[in-house]
Write a structure and sequence with these properties.
The protein contains eight helices and no strands. By secondary structure, it is mostly helical. It has one domain: Orthogonal Bundle (Tetracycline Repressor, domain 2), CATH 1.10.357. The radius of gyration is 23 Å and the shape is elongated. The N and C termini lie far apart (92 Å).
């Protein structure tokens, strides 16, 4: 009788452990969604609070994820900073492209007006990554400096192209 009770208890514990493991498993799609969520949140937070003003624990909490899960997505905070900076430039270029499409006659004027707007000034988390983080980048790792330099170069090339008169 004791054997049966012990066995039943062990089996129910195994079943509970299997349920916990299944509950903890995250699909590849969910991992990709979590990574995107972390990148989007980091890109906004870094522009708002600066690189050193954002902790990994705070960032993960804001994203609704656990601090321990961070390293399943990124090698380090430095790695995240580089990718989030790239994401900020991608967002900026996307906004510029939208302004260009909506204002084909004077795209550079539309971009300049938006850039100098009060709304852009008041919301650094959704604004220009160079204005928000340019000076902080000098104290970051080489990978972050490389991403910032590449983004500035691309932005300048696009600005030069927009400044040309239409053909």
């Amino acid at each position: 009788m004791m054997y049966i009770i012990k066995n039943t208890i062990l089996e129910s514990e195994l079943h509970l452990n299997e349920q916990r493991v299944e509950h903890m498993k995250v699909s590849k799609e969910q991992m990709a969604e979590h990574r995107e969520l972390i990148l989007t949140t980091a890109s906004r937070r870094f522009r708002d609070k600066g690189f050193d003003g954002v902790s990994v624990a705070g960032l993960m909490k804001e994203a609704g994820l656990t601090h321990g899960g961070f390293y399943n997505h990124f090698e380090s905070k430095e790695h995240l900073i580089a990718l989030a900076t790239r994401r900020a430039f991608d967002d900026l270029m996307g906004r510029w492209a939208g302004l260009r499409e909506r204002n084909p006659a004077k795209p550079s004027q539309a971009i300049i007006q938006t850039y100098l707007s009060y709304n852009h000034y008041r919301k650094p988390e959704s604004g220009c990554v160079v204005a928000a983080l340019g000076t902080e980048t000098a104290r970051q790792a080489g990978s972050v400096k490389t991403v910032m330099a590449g983004g500035i170069y691309y932005s300048a090339a696009l600005a030069k192209q927009l400044a040309r008169p239409p053909r």
